[in-house]
Amino acid sequence: MKIKLKNNKIISFIEEHPTLKGEVCAHSIKSRQVGRKTTSFKRRIECRPDLAIRIERLSKKIKISQLLEYINSFYNERIYLIMDHKFTCLEEQKWLENSIKEIRKNERLHYICFNGKKIIASVEAKKDRMREKCNVCLGIAIKKEFRGCGLGTILLKLIIGEAKTKFKPKNIYLSVISKNCPAKKLYEKIGFREFAVFPKWVNYENKYIDKVFMKLEK
């Protein structure tokens, strides 16, 4: 199956996770089961002949060096994210270990998107704690050169579909810095609507900026 994107780009998508079929039907993605284990879950996207993308579950197989290069690229870009320093190997190792524990405890879903050996995007859904565990918070980050082709829409629809099936949450929400207009536009397109604002909450390069919370309404 193929998905038409803007700028005449085409994505060829192979779906290997049957639980997501209903949520991504709008993209005409064909679903099939490969083997007996859903851990073999992979997807392949081709935006152009020289570009192949695969999406995998977060696991210990992913190298720390790959994760570091990916996450620190956003700090170098000075994009509207809350990170205020480059992460070290030790910090990233601890983050990976904690994330894997949360996945095993059925508290988190996390996927990593590769182009070749480089990580270009990630998306996650994480349950809140204690009496708020009925709510799920999403997070997504895509490298600059891969934005604007529809990848963000696909990743969010996929993670939302699996989060609904696996967690059955009361609310699905996310937060975004108010000045991050492209991200807010994407979230609104998916069906998120603003429900709270923390004024002058984030210190971004010595200026205080609002933090916006958005909830999925459809």
Proportion of residues in extended strands: 35-45%
CATH superfamily: Gcn5-related N-acetyltransferase (GNAT)
Side-by-side strand order of the widest sheet:
5-6-7-8-9-10-12-11
The biggest beta sheet, please?
A: 8 strands, mixed
CA-based shape: globular
Look up the CATH topology: Aminopeptidase
Rg, Å, rounded: 17 Å
Briefly note the structural class of the backbone: alpha+beta
CATH class: Alpha Beta
Question: What keywords describe this structure?
Answer:
disordered N terminus, 218 residues, 26% helix, 4 helices, 12 strands, 37% strand, single chain, Aminopeptidase, 8-stranded mixed β-sheet, two-stranded antiparallel sheet, alpha+beta
Question: Short description, anyone?
Answer:
The chain is α+β, with helices and mostly antiparallel strands.
Can you walk me through this structure?
The structure is a single chain. This protein is α+β, with helices and mostly antiparallel strands. It has a single domain (2-216), classed as Gcn5-related N-acetyltransferase (GNAT) (Aminopeptidase). The chain has four helices and twelve strands, in the order ββββββααβββαβαββ. An eight-stranded mixed beta sheet has the order 5-6-7-8-9-10-12-11, sandwiched between helices. It has a two-stranded antiparallel ribbon with strand order 1-2. It has a two-stranded parallel ribbon with strand order 3-4. Strand 9 (135-142), helix 3 and strand 10 (171-177) form a beta-alpha-beta unit. The two termini are 25 Å apart.
Write the layout of secondary structure elements.
Blueprint: E1 2-4, E2 10-12, E3 14-15, E4 30-31, E5 42-48, E6 51-57, H1 64-77, H2 89-104, E7 108-115, E8 118-127, E9 135-142, H3 151-167, E10 171-177, H4 181-190, E11 192-204, E12 207-216
